[in-house]
Amino acid sequence: VLNPCYISFRGMENASTITELVLVGFSNHPQAELPLFFLFSVVYLISLFGNTVIIFLVVIDSCLQTPMYFFLCHLAFLNIFYTTTVVPKMLFNLLAPKKVISYDLCLAQTYISLLMGAAECIILALMALDRYVAICYPLRYLLIMNWPMCVRLAVGAWTISFFASVVPLYFTILPLCGPYIVDHIFCEVPVLLHMFCADTSLQETMMVIGASGTLLLPFLLITLSYLRILVAVMRMHSAEGRKKAFSTCSSHLTVVTIYYGTGMFMYMRPKSLYSAEGDKLISLFYAVINPALNPLIYSLRNKEVKGALKRLLERWSVSQMQKTLF
């Protein structure tokens, strides 16, 4: 299945310049490629549709124009961008006889996956902070989480993500050594570490430091926020109030648990624990399946989103009736 002759080169100076790499994907299981193509196509369409609907509802429905949904829009945009970087090439290779990826696209996937992963961690932390302020300081919520503050937090999240992920990788990335075979479903840092020509101790250390800043610190903020929320909810005298407080946090907690569980395992471990087949499944979950689950979790378990969708459908049905009548 894997033929190093797939590799092409450009230039013949001291070393050949790589233009293509073999992208193994699921080619070790050829009988599963066609069913996986249809499965991942459906998941990708669900992800695009669900996240686009979330953004559209927040933009047009004034009831959803709150800090929580402002950050949710950033999460939805991130999901669309992340999956679009990864899934189309993966789907193409599932059907293509020649399983390759251009070197430029491989680098782009590496940088974007690192940036999107870091940004998602920080945005999830900001969403937890928003819930903490809303539940623990309800009377001061709109004063603290005003729109200028939300915009500054969002800009800060993307800026920190860029400088904590993309910039260090740019200055520490090494040339690749043959055979130029990426035994994964897309290009990301833990996989490329096995293809670098020199000692990767510095790169592994930088990856752990970067993961500590973009995974552990936001996770610590989320944990502290929810501990304070738990204390505040337990002090509520109304059972209905406690139920409402927990319901506003349950969707976010579900997303955090899924994303952090897979992300920490992938990026906060030594290279020696790498497992090609197992890591494909983990990456598949946080890069392909999780972006499709996020809008489903937030819409199916959130009364405000379901209410906004209901109002949109009602307005659409009324407009259709008016067109029919007139």
Automatic annotation (TrEMBL):
UniProt GO cellular component terms: plasma membrane
Keyword Metal-binding: no
Domain of life: Eukaryota
GO MF annotations, alphabetized: G protein-coupled receptor activity; olfactory receptor activity
SMART domains: 7TM_GPCR_Srsx
Localization terms from the record: Cell membrane
A UniProt-annotated Pfam family: 7tm_4
Record-annotated membrane-spanning stretches: 36-60, 69-91, 111-129, 150-171, 215-233, 245-269, 281-300
InterPro entries noted in UniProt: GPCR_Rhodpsn (IPR000276), GPCR_Rhodpsn_7TM (IPR017452), Olfact_rcpt (IPR000725)
Membrane-protein topology: Multi-pass membrane protein
Key words of the record: Cell membrane, G-protein coupled receptor, Membrane, Olfaction, Receptor, Sensory transduction, Transducer, Transmembrane, Transmembrane helix
Residue ranges annotated for the G-protein coupled receptors family 1 profile domain, each copy included: 50-298
Task performed by this protein: Putative odorant or sperm cell receptor.
PANTHER family: OLFACTORY RECEPTOR
Family affiliation: Belongs to the G-protein coupled receptor 1 family.
Protein name, UniProt field: Olfactory receptor
Organism of derivation: Suricata suricatta (Meerkat)
